[in-house]
Amino acid sequence: MGGDFAPQAPVAGALLALAELPAPLEIQLVGPTAVIESQLAALVAGEFALLAHVRDRIIIVEAPDVVSMTDKPAAVLRSKPNSSMSVGLRRVAEGHADAFVSAGNTGAQMAASTVLLKLHAGLTRPAIGTIFPTAHQPVLVLDSGANVDCSALELVQFARIGATYAQDLLGRSAPAIGLLSIGEEPEKGNAVVKEAHQLLLQSGLNFIGNVEGRDMATGTCDRGPIDVVVCDGFVGNVLLKFYEALAPTLIGMVASHAGLDRRELRRGLHQLDADEYGGAPLLGVNGVSIISHGKSSPKAIKNAIRVAQRAHDSDMTAHIRRRLAESVPESNIAPPGTAA
Amino acid sequence: MGGDFAPQAPVAGALLALAELPAPLEIQLVGPTAVIESQLAALVAGEFALLAHVRDRIIIVEAPDVVSMTDKPAAVLRSKPNSSMSVGLRRVAEGHADAFVSAGNTGAQMAASTVLLKLHAGLTRPAIGTIFPTAHQPVLVLDSGANVDCSALELVQFARIGATYAQDLLGRSAPAIGLLSIGEEPEKGNAVVKEAHQLLLQSGLNFIGNVEGRDMATGTCDRGPIDVVVCDGFVGNVLLKFYEALAPTLIGMVASHAGLDRRELRRGLHQLDADEYGGAPLLGVNGVSIISHGKSSPKAIKNAIRVAQRAHDSDMTAHIRRRLAESVPESNIAPPGTAA
């Protein structure tokens, strides 16, 4: 039930995903059963008639409550225990599902994922990782909005998490990690960034130093291609929204200047289309939780489901947990069975 | 002598500016006399022969030292008292020039401007104001890199300074001020931004609330067009460099996709050309100091000189000083003649 175009977009996206992903993969649609059933029936009878054969790989999971965009994120689990958000994430927490995808209230998904799936040992907050298309290759940017005020240690955690994601989902070996700043030199940046720079030098990661705003557009810097850019969630979120609005704005200006068809041009430049990337994983929790844009189209939902599937199949969550455990001094981890 | 293409670009830019701006306006070129004279002679004998008539409105001011991009900003005034930076700004401070323009070391220009021109009463730091072209009208963004860690009070000072600049140089009446954040609601943002939001509500400015990254691309939000965006210099600088690199990147991608000539397209979309805006004023000091990009072309220098001329003619500096003074409780301003 999440997102501006629910239930149509999530249901249609599920049908599209099943058409691309082979059995035995199944999709559980979580929400008010009657609403989902009638939406499914309408799509299969109409626009998606050719996908009728995948209908039997859809399971409906009843969840009568609906989280709205104005619900207070931290209160959703308690106030709406039977929302599609709460029920869906509980399926993952209890092992009845392998991954969760939503285009609903981002704050609520973050809060509920943190409570139900739990953070990895050594982490204080999860991070949202988004993909920025560049002139070179796509770059993973984190955090893109989960944490507005970050400590230097948290930025280092984002780097570890991001390195694993880039390896498992983007296929980058020894991912090159850049720290977003306002100059290449270690002494450039705000207080937190300068401290994080020193910590990253000792992190054992493939840290290539500070990168600047321009390097995020080109995807490369004078030390080579960039795989991961680490920043706090305030800067990351501002940049993400700026990019999302600027790309179509610029394409529109070019189209009208050159007398080209705007839509045709956008289709041609599909690598700039946010729908191609579908969803941003909430990284740092014990389970796959993919955050999709509120404005997600069926295609975006389909691609978010593909991200979820790759995250599960690559065992990303376990890899992140292991990488974080290796980096934490043993004395900081409670032995199994003891209280945290 | 400042910038990657000095002395050619500044000298050529001065000739171009004089051709557009009527007498009695004169330009003082500050640097090693012999170098400037030979550059002037070469340009007037060759490419700029048609501008030979403006040569007598150029005065050369001897300054033998040259500030490099690696010089420590804070030390330049002491270590190189006879650099073009130090000598040029001293001309303004002592009333022998009305404005200063440089494409040299930004940090050095900031530090030297602060020491020689002095900050307005009530200010703790100057700010750099840059123009972002948008789908709507150009928007002034400040701070774009002078201050990496800002307090809420400093963000409010930037808003006051920016409002005056938008009025005097962009011709906006009652400029609409937005505070950059990650959501429209007052409770969205990092700690400093949330505090600044409350202070701005009581500032007497035309504060339209938080704006987001996407609003900086469109130049408007659901509360109307935006004239000024306030942010700290870390975020502002990252965004500025991202934009500067992304616009040509996207135009290049469109050009190669649509089989268009890249240069032709960039010329056509001149509103996206940073050279059109020329220079960013260092705001908050008692005098006009315009910071140009290190990569400034002659055209960019010419436009920076035009920004300087408009700043001087509109009496922007006095207006900013007055607006700041009105906003500071009287007890905070020392009476004339007493020590600060």
Overview in brief:
The structure is a homodimer of 340-residue chains. The first copy, chain A, is an alpha/beta fold and 340 residues long.
Helix/strand layout:
Two copies of one chain form a homodimer.
Chain A: H1 8-20, E1 27-31, H2 33-45, E2 58-62, H3 76-79, H4 84-93, E3 99-102, H5 106-117, E4 127-128, E5 130-132, E6 139-142, H6 152-170, E7 177-180, H7 191-201, E8 207-211, H8 213-218, E9 220-221, E10 224-225, E11 228-230, H9 233-258, H10 262-268, E12 279-283, E13 288-292, H11 298-313, H12 316-327
Parallel strand pairs in A: 1-2, 3-13, 6-11, 7-8, 7-11
Antiparallel strand pairs in A: 4-12, 5-6, 9-10, 12-13
Would you write up a description of this structure?
The structure is a homodimer of 340-residue chains. Chain A has 340 residues and is of the alpha/beta class. Chain A has two domains: 1-123 and 284-329, 3-Layer(aba) Sandwich (Isopropylmalate Dehydrogenase), CATH 3.40.718; 132-276, 3-Layer(aba) Sandwich (Isopropylmalate Dehydrogenase). Helix content of chain A is 44%, strand content 14%. Chain A has twelve helices and 13 strands. In chain A, the strands form four sheets. A five-stranded mixed β-sheet of chain A has the order 5-6-11-7-8, with helices on both faces. A four-stranded mixed β-sheet of chain A has the order 3-13-12-4, sandwiched between helices. In chain A, strands 1-2 form a two-stranded parallel ribbon. Chain A is globular and about 60 Å long. Chains A and B meet through helix 8 and helix 9 of A and helix 8 and helix 9 of B.
